[in-house]
Amino acid sequence: MTAADLAQHLIELREEGQLSAASAARAVSAVRGLHRFAAREGIAPHDVSREVKPPAPPKRLPKALDVDQVTRLLGAVTGDDPLALRDRALLELLYGIGARISEAVGLDIDDLDPDVVTVRGKGGRTRIVPLGSYAREALDAYLVRGRPALIRRGTPKVFLNARGGPLSRQSAWTILHRAAEAAGLPVDGAHAVSPHTLRHSYATHLLDGGADVRVVQELLGHASVTTTQVYTLVTVDRLREVYATAHPRAR
Question: Which of 22, 84, 114, 171 could form a disulfide with 57 if both were Cys (CB 3.0 to 4.6 A apart)?
């Protein structure tokens, strides 16, 4: 078998089999694995599959809520009991600083300052993120009236469960799921609201508001600006929408 044979096989997978790029890539990966094995074991003289690259899957745009949807979501938690105060503070923080769910539940009391939060992200990287007034007020209410009623044993974690221990990622997911359902937002399927949806919304709304992509990179804790630039593709849709509704010759 030659590299040309493999390339033709890939073409047939895509055109005749009507497979997606991801499915074709998985099939090609299996073929490449077989050829690596054959070359390593001396069954084939060399690995011809190294010359054939699997197709790159299309870049998926992050799902983001619009501002009205975020407002509905954050307003869906009602009540003044300790758990409601916790849930509201968690949701405000996820959107207010663009934190990953693991970063939010991993916060310690010492990570909170009046106007900023110290976030420990992937790869041990630490970043300082400004804290807005809505998130600050929700956190203050929880720390003063909610957390003291929940804590049972000494733990530095900000967010606690009903037994007084650290809140888990799964429980944080459940909190968001309940709020999304109460706000009438999708909780199942491709467009289901997830903790990362709030992070995507945070980045998208910053860029829509005129924030520099390098600043957003720092706020999100991305090691490379390339990762952040995917959000600029989202804002292009917003630009098209504004152009279509505002320009007299847009249609």
Answer: 22
3-state secondary structure 114-150: CCEEEEECHHHCEEEEECCHHHHHHHHHHHHHHHHHH
Q: Would residue 26 show up in a list of annotated catalytic residues for this protein?
A: no
Q: Which residues pair with 130 in a beta bridge?
A: 116
Residue 72 a catalytic site member: no
Has 200 been annotated as catalytic? no
Is 142 designated active site?
no
pLDDT of the chain, 251 residues: tens digit per residue: 788 888 888 788 777 667 777 788 888 888 888 988 998 999 988 888 888 777 776 666 667 888 999 999 999 999 999 999 999 999 999 999 989 899 999 999 999 998 899 998 877 788 889 899 999 999 999 999 999 999 987 789 999 999 999 999 999 999 999 999 999 998 887 678 888 889 889 988 888 888 888 888 888 887 777 777 777 766 667 677 777 877 777 76
Among residues 32, 199, 200, 205, the one annotated as catalytic is: 199
Of residues 86, 88, 100, 200, which has the active-site annotation?
Answer: 100
Asked if the 67-242 domain carries CATH number 1.10.443.10, the reply is yes
Q: What is the pTM of this model?
A: 0.71
Q: Which of 191, 196, 214, 240 is catalytic?
A: 196
Catalytic residue among 26, 40, 122, 125: 122
Residues spanned by CATH 1.10.443.10 within the chain?
67-242
What is the rounded CA–CA span in Å between residue 67 and residue 70? 5
159 neighbors 107 (Cβ within 8 angstroms): yes
